[in-house]
C-alpha cells in the first residue's frame, strides 16, 4: 500500500455507473497485461475494494474532488502507474466502446438479479415513493403473490402487514420481527435504504418459519405426552429401573425404591453397586431377550424380576428391570392393562392433535367426540370430495365447513355460504345459479349466482334439508355434471366448486317420507361429519366458557370475569338444547348482568339454575311402577312440585319457564290449593 499512487477525481460527475464500468474494464485490461491485482482505497474512510468489481465501485459512490489511492499486490509499479494515469484522465469514451461498457453494466445487473432470485429468503425492495421494484421468487413462494402483480404497486396494497411505508417515512428499521403473511409465519428484517443521508427507499428480508412453528407445536405435544407417561410410571405399582449401556442407573420409580429397598440417590450410580448379584450380573446386563426370575427379600417376600433389553438399530442400549411383589400380581395385572390402554389413548389423541391443520385447532374443545369429528373433517380437507356435516343447531357446523375450506388447496379462493332455509323457494334458484336480464319480472340486470361466485373455491349449503325437491334435482345435476345454467339463460357454464352441505334434519326419515331425494343424499354424503351436541362433550364447557368470557370482554371493552365453581356446575348439568351458540348467549348475558368480578349462580337464568330440580320432577312423574303418565298427569305433578318448592306462582313460573298467570290457571284447573 505504501507504493500506491494518490489521485484526486476531477470528473464533474464523479465515478457514476457508466464511468465505473469504464474503470472496471480498463482495470481488467491492465491486470491482464501486468499479471497483478489492482485495488482502490478511498482516503476518507479507508474503504478498500478490487479495481475490477463493478458493483463494489458503484456502491462506493466516489464524487468529484475525493481522493483515492491505487495500489497493487505485486512489486511491479507499472500496472499501478498505468491505472493511475487512466483515473487522472477525462474518462472520454468513443462510440465503439459504449456497447462494451453497456454490456458490462447489463451483465452485472443481470448477475445481481440472479443473486436476488437465488436467495432462499423473501426479498422486497421499494423506491422512495413506496413502489415495489424487486420481488424475488422466495417472496412469491412465501406470500403466494406473483412478482407480476407486486412489482410497480405500492407495498401497502400488496402486503400491508410489512408496514414498509412507515420505514420510508421514519427511516427506522426493525429486525427479528415475527409476523404472519397469509398462512405463513415469518421472521422479518426491514430497514431504510439511505444514500447521502437521504432515504431512497426500503428493503425487507423475511424467512418462512412456518415449519419451525409446526415443529415447536408438535414438540410441546411430545413434551406433554412425556410428562403424562412419567406420571403413569410414577403411579403404577410395578417397580421400574432403567439402566443404560454403561450400566448406569438412569431412572428409578418410587415403587422400585420401596420394593428393592433403595433410594433415589442411586440414580447415576453403577447398577452393580446398588443391586445384589442375584438380581443383576454382567451377563444379565447384556441380554438380548427378555428374562424373568424370582428372588427373596431378607424379610422373605418373593419378588418377580423381569429384565428386558432396550434395542436401537440392532444394538443393545440398556435394560429395563421390572420388580413386583407376587402377592400383588393379580391386582397389578389389571392395573397394567388399564394403564396400557390409557397410554394408547393418549398417543392416539396426540396423533389426532398433530394431524389437525391450523384452522381446525381454532375450534375450542378437547373431547374425544369432537376430535373424532374434526379428524374426519381435516382428512376431508385434503380432497375435493363432497362433505355432509350433520348435527344439532349451534354445534359449529359452519365453523367446521370454514376450517375444511381454509385447510384445503382452495383456501385462497372464495368461501360462499348459502342458508337454504332463509331464502324463499321461488328465489333460491336465482340465488344459486344467477339469472339473465329480463328472465323474470324484476330481473332488470344480469346477476351471478352463488355457484359462479364460489368458482375455484367452496360453496357451503347450510340447512340443505329445507331445499324443495325441484331444487334438489337441479343441485344433483350440478354435482354430476359440474356445470350450471343461469335462470333465463341458454349458455352452459362450467364450474369448479367444492360443495359442503350441512343440516340438522333427519335426512334418512325425509327420504322414507319422500321429502328428500335418495340419489342426492348419496351424492352429498360422500364424507359424513357428525358434530356432537354440547351435552355429549360437557368436559369442554369450562374451556368454552372461558373463551366466551374473554370474547365478550374484548367485544364490549369489559374486564374479563371469573366464573364460580357452583355456576360452572350448573352449566355442566344443563342439557343445552341450543348447544354452543346457547352457551355463548348465556355467558354474554351473565357478564352483562353480573355486578362484580365473578359470575355466580344468581347471574344465570333460572331455567338453568333450576334444571336439576326440573329433572327430578320429571323422574318423579315417570317412576310409577310401569305406568306411563298422561300429559295432564305430568303437567299436574310439575305444577304441584313447583309450587311446593318455590311457594309462589311467580317462583314456580320462573322455574318452569312460563307465565305466572298460566301457573295460577293450571293450579285452579287441577284443584291444587295446599302448598
Automatic annotation (TrEMBL):
<feature type="domain" description="Sigma-54 factor interaction">
    <location>
        <begin position="363"/>
        <end position="592"/>
    </location>
</feature>
<feature type="domain" description="HPr">
    <location>
        <begin position="2"/>
        <end position="101"/>
    </location>
</feature>
<dbReference type="InterPro" id="IPR009057">
    <property type="entry name" value="Homeodomain-like_sf"/>
</dbReference>
<feature type="domain" description="PAS">
    <location>
        <begin position="113"/>
        <end position="153"/>
    </location>
</feature>
<dbReference type="Pfam" id="PF00158">
    <property type="entry name" value="Sigma54_activat"/>
</dbReference>
<dbReference type="GO" id="GO:0005524">
    <property type="term" value="F:ATP binding"/>
</dbReference>
<dbReference type="InterPro" id="IPR025662">
    <property type="entry name" value="Sigma_54_int_dom_ATP-bd_1"/>
</dbReference>
<dbReference type="InterPro" id="IPR000014">
    <property type="entry name" value="PAS"/>
</dbReference>
<dbReference type="InterPro" id="IPR035895">
    <property type="entry name" value="HPr-like_sf"/>
</dbReference>
<dbReference type="InterPro" id="IPR002078">
    <property type="entry name" value="Sigma_54_int"/>
</dbReference>
<dbReference type="GO" id="GO:0003677">
    <property type="term" value="F:DNA binding"/>
</dbReference>
<dbReference type="InterPro" id="IPR027417">
    <property type="entry name" value="P-loop_NTPase"/>
</dbReference>
<dbReference type="InterPro" id="IPR003593">
    <property type="entry name" value="AAA+_ATPase"/>
</dbReference>
<feature type="coiled-coil region">
    <location>
        <begin position="322"/>
        <end position="349"/>
    </location>
</feature>
<keyword id="KW-0067">ATP-binding</keyword>
<dbReference type="Pfam" id="PF00381">
    <property type="entry name" value="PTS-HPr"/>
</dbReference>
<keyword id="KW-0058">Aromatic hydrocarbons catabolism</keyword>
<dbReference type="InterPro" id="IPR013767">
    <property type="entry name" value="PAS_fold"/>
</dbReference>
<dbReference type="InterPro" id="IPR058031">
    <property type="entry name" value="AAA_lid_NorR"/>
</dbReference>
<keyword id="KW-0805">Transcription regulation</keyword>
<keyword id="KW-0547">Nucleotide-binding</keyword>
<keyword id="KW-0238">DNA-binding</keyword>
<dbReference type="InterPro" id="IPR025944">
    <property type="entry name" value="Sigma_54_int_dom_CS"/>
</dbReference>
<keyword id="KW-0175">Coiled coil</keyword>
<dbReference type="GO" id="GO:0006355">
    <property type="term" value="P:regulation of DNA-templated transcription"/>
</dbReference>
<dbReference type="InterPro" id="IPR030828">
    <property type="entry name" value="HTH_TyrR"/>
</dbReference>
<dbReference type="InterPro" id="IPR025943">
    <property type="entry name" value="Sigma_54_int_dom_ATP-bd_2"/>
</dbReference>
<dbReference type="InterPro" id="IPR035965">
    <property type="entry name" value="PAS-like_dom_sf"/>
</dbReference>
<protein>
    <recommendedName>
        <fullName>HTH-type transcriptional regulatory protein TyrR</fullName>
    </recommendedName>
</protein>
<dbReference type="Pfam" id="PF18024">
    <property type="entry name" value="HTH_50"/>
</dbReference>
<keyword id="KW-0804">Transcription</keyword>
<dbReference type="Pfam" id="PF25601">
    <property type="entry name" value="AAA_lid_14"/>
</dbReference>
<dbReference type="Pfam" id="PF00989">
    <property type="entry name" value="PAS"/>
</dbReference>
<dbReference type="InterPro" id="IPR000032">
    <property type="entry name" value="HPr-like"/>
</dbReference>
Amino acid at each position: 500500500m505504501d507504493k500506491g499512487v494518490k489521485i484526486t477525481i476531477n470528473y464533474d460527475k464523479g465515478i457514476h455507473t457508466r464511468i465505473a464500468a469504464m474503470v472496471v474494464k480498463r482495470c481488467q485490461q491492465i491486470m491482464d497485461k501486468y499479471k497483478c491485482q489492482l485495488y482502490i482505497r478511498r482516503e476518507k474512510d479507508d474503504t478498500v475494494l478490487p479495481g475490477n468489481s463493478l458493483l463494489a465501485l458503484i456502491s462506493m459512490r466516489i464524487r468529484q474532488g475525493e481522493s483515492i489511492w491505487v495500489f497493487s499486490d505485486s512489486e511491479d509499479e507499472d500496472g499501478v502507474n498505468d491505472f493511475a494515469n487512466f483515473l487522472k484522465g477525462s474518462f472520454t469514451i468513443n462510440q465503439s466502446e459504449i456497447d462494451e461498457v453497456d454490456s458490462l453494466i447489463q451483465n452485472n445487473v443481470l448477475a445481481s438479479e440472479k443473486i436476488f432470485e437465488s436467495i432462499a429468503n423473501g426479498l422486497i425492495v421499494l423506491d422512495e415513493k413506496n413502489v415495489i421494484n424487486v420481488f424475488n421468487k422466495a417472496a412469491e413462494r412465501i406470500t403466494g403473490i406473483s412478482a407480476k402483480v407486486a412489482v410497480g404497486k405500492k407495498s401497502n396494497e400488496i402486503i400491508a402487514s410489512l408496514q414498509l411505508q412507515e420505514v420510508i417515512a421514519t427511516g427506522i428499521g426493525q429486525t427479528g420481527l415475527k409476523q404472519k403473511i397469509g398462512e405463513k409465519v415469518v421472521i422479518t428484517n426491514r430497514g431504510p435504504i439511505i444514500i447521502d443521508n437521504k432515504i431512497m427507499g426500503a428493503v425487507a428480508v423475511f424467512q418462512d418459519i412456518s415449519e419451525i412453528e409446526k415443529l415447536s407445536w408438535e414438540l410441546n405435544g411430545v413434551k406433554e405426552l412425556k410428562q403424562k407417561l412419567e406420571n403413569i410410571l410414577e403411579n403404577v405399582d410395578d417397580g421400574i429401573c432403567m439402566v443404560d449401556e454403561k450400566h448406569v442407573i438412569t431412572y428409578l420409580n418410587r415403587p422400585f425404591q420401596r420394593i428393592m429397598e433403595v433410594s433415589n440417590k442411586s440414580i447415576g450410580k453403577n447398577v452393580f453397586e446398588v443391586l445384589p448379584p442375584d438380581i443383576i450380573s454382567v451377563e444379565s446386563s447384556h441380554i438380548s431377550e427378555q428374562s424373568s426370575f424370582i428372588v427373596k427379600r431378607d424379610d422373605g417376600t418373593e419378588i418377580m424380576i423381569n429384565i428386558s433389553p432396550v434395542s436401537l438399530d440392532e444394538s443393545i442400549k440398556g435394560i429395563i428391570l421390572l420388580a413386583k411383589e407376587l402377592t400383588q400380581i393379580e391386582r397389578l395385572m389389571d392395573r397394567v392393562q388399564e394403564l396400557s390402554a390409557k397410554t394408547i389413548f393418549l398417543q392416539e389423541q396426540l396423533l389426532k392433535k398433530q394431524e389437525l391443520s391450523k384452522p381446525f385447532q381454532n375450534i375450542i374443545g378437547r373431547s374425544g367426540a369432537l376430535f373424532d369429528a374434526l379428524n374426519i373433517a381435516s382428512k376431508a380437507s385434503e380432497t375435493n370430495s363432497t362433505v355432509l356435516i350433520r348435527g344439532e343447531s349451534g354445534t359449529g357446523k359452519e365453523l367446521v365447513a370454514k376450517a375444511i375450506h381454509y385447510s384445503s388447496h382452495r383456501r385462497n379462493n372464495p368461501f360462499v355460504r348459502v342458508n337454504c332455509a332463509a331464502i324463499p323457494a321461488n328465489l333460491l334458484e336465482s340465488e344459486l345459479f344467477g339469472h339473465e336480464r329480463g328472465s323474470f319480472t324484476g330481473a332488470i340486470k344480469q346477476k351471478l349466482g352463488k355457484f359462479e361466485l364460489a368458482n375455484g373455491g367452496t360453496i357451503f349449503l347450510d340447512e340443505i334439508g329445507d331445499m324443495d325437491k325441484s331444487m334438489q334435482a337441479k343441485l344433483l345435476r350440478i354435482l354430476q355434471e359440474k356445470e350450471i345454467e343461469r335462470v333465463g339463460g341458454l349458455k352452459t357454464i362450467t364450474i369448479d366448486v367444492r360443495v359442503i352441505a350441512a343440516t340438522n334434519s333427519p335426512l334418512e326419515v325425509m327420504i322414507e317420507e319422500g321429502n328428500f331425494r335418495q340419489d342426492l343424499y348419496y351424492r352429498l354424503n360422500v364424507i359424513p361429519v357428525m358434530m356432537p351436541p354440547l351435552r355429549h362433550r360437557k368436559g369442554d364447557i369450562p374451556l368454552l366458557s372461558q373463551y366466551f368470557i374473554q370474547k365478550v370482554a374484548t367485544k364490549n371493552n369489559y374486564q374479563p370475569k371469573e366464573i364460580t365453581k357452583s355456576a360452572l356446575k350448573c352449566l355442566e348439568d344443563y342439557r343445552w338444547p341450543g348447544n354452543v351458540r346457547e352457551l355463548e348467549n348465556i355467558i354474554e348475558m351473565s357478564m352483562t348482568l353480573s355486578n362484580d368480578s365473578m359470575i355466580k349462580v344468581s347471574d344465570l337464568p333460572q331455567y338453568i339454575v333450576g334444571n336439576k330440580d326440573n329433572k327430578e320432577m320429571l323422574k318423579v312423574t315417570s317412576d310409577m311402577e310401569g305406568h306411563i303418565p298422561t300429559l295432564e298427569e305430568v303437567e299436574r305433578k310439575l305444577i304441584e312440585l313447583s309450587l311446593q318448592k318455590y311457594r309462589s306462582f311467580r317462583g314456580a313460573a320462573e322455574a318452569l319457564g312460563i307465565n305466572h298467570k298460566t301457573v295460577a290457571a293450571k293450579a285452579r284447573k287441577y284443584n291444587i290449593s295446599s302448598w
